[in-house]
Input
Amino acid sequence: MSLYRDEGVVLRTSKLGEADRIITILTRGHGKIRAVAKGVRRTKSRFGARLEPFMRVDVLIAEGRSLDVVSQAEAVAAYGAPIAADYAAYEAANVIVETIDKIASTEHEQLPNQYRLLIGALNALAKQSHAPQAIGDSYVMRALALAGWTPRLGTCVVCGKAEPAYLSIASGGVMCEADHTTDARRIAPFVLNQFDALIRGDWSVLDAAPVERVVQELVGRLGGVLPRTPDSFAALDRFMSMAFENVDYTSLDIPAAPFSDPARIPDFPKNKVPRHIGVIMDGNGRWAKQRGMVRTNGHQAAEPVVFDTIAGAIEAGVRYLSLYTFSTENWKRSPQEVRFLMGFSREIIHRRVEQMDEWGVRVRWSGRRPKLWKSVIDELEAAEERTKNNKVIDVVFCINYGGRAEIADACAAIAREVRDGKISGDRVTEKMIADHLYNPDIPDCDLVIRTSGEQRTSNFLPWEAAYAELDFVPELFPDCGRDVLWRSIDHYIHRDRRFGGVK
Output
């Protein structure tokens, strides 16, 4: 039985048998762990009160088959006693530990910055450094910010203008007068300033006046923890990313790198793997409906599948992967779903760009600028710039993309060149059109995969996929992943491709 030592904060405990407890701890080096403290409920327990909530401890852990076991525990800082003596501080501490318990959804995932923020907040509560409510509210906002879920407060999330007049939780930030949605609420400058101070931890602002009730409500909507009652903590599941309804971020497991056991990866024939694969990621809404969920839950469940598919493409040796993310026709969906998809797309790129960069992914974007939220464009362009030198795989996010629109835009560009005398109008060729597409350096698509069983291409890459093989798979996209991708690649390899000729 191997041992490891770490420092951590006890988040919660639960009874096990007659004398034991399961202790949930956020550690500095091993992330969140659950371990059994044997005999801790006995009067003469060797652990004493060291394994109670809010305690900062040095622990020696023995790895077990199902649950690890606490072998030793020494106190580093006893935050529990002074916090429990002040009811307001106790309420705030419960909000804090329940929040990090939800954010740290995957066990043993290292979260050093979250750990430092946690002990800083508990230490401040124990020392009464600031008002407990301000500490708790600031912690919630800063923990969400560290996790990549920061509301945009400086400029409008739609147009990018520095004219914040409204705040929309569902849209992920402030909006100007012209672009605000019906759910957005008008926000006064002093309220926005205090809300921003919570995120930045600016105590010169926060200590000057109590947190305004409207700011408390905003934090509650973002963190899902108001009103502050024991039952309210379950509400944190409703947000966890810019208040997109009922987001379950337990599904956001990130594939490891290296990705799979080499023995699991199919041994595809050399030079037979499609160079460029396009994926129509269909069926998210139906997947959610089958489970009694709202449609947006299906989009949330699709996120880890997207990255599992990218990992599988890398393993198979695919060089280009185009993902149909949001079509020009998707604007016809309900305003609520459109707002969700815009904000969710933006946050995915923001949260995942570091991971993609580590994998050697070059991020690309294909689509139109008009109507697309400027905040989404900003994240895409930042990701493109950060990853521009990566060469493992190009992943093209087709957002506000339509195949007919792409061809029309190419023709418009050619027409402008004809008007300017750069080319002759009677010399337009297929190659010329191809050279004016959104990403002319990317080769034609070899294989298009559509999930959910539907058998149509829905305006996806009509020019680039003119000779692509089509594979319509029955699985709804949230039920897919690298195994489905590999199966389609295998089908592709065994097809007879003639390109109009005879073999």
User: Anything to note?
Assistant: The radius of gyration is 26 Å.
